[in-house]
Amino acid sequence: MNLLTSRNCALLFGAVFVAVGVLGFIPNPLVSEHGLFMVNPAHNLVHILTGAFMLSAPLALKGKESLFLKIGGGLYLLVAILGFLIKGDMLVGVIMLSDTDRYLHVLLAAALLGAGFFARDAT
Hints:
This protein has helices at residues 6-23, 41-60, 65-85, 99-118; strands at 31-32, 37-38, 90-91, 95-96.
């Protein structure tokens, strides 16, 4: 049994996004308004919604999860580019963003695109 399926990747990414989103609402040094990854409630909500969509992908797109991962990777690549183009620490005036977030978005885009292109869809 191959564990590296696009379904499992979507579930893993989804669970991590939801966990990070929830963690952002709990004061901690890693993910908070003053943490290594600067987030505000809007940013946390984006993480939770992204995670929820990724968790639902295996149900909604049975056998096509890799497409969802590719789209997610493309969107995170756009967010990363936009993050580097803007000045200041607010993305679209609502989402708190630090340099650490900018680089993380590049890594997330690469990971999602990699999973989308290299993990197998269920048959």
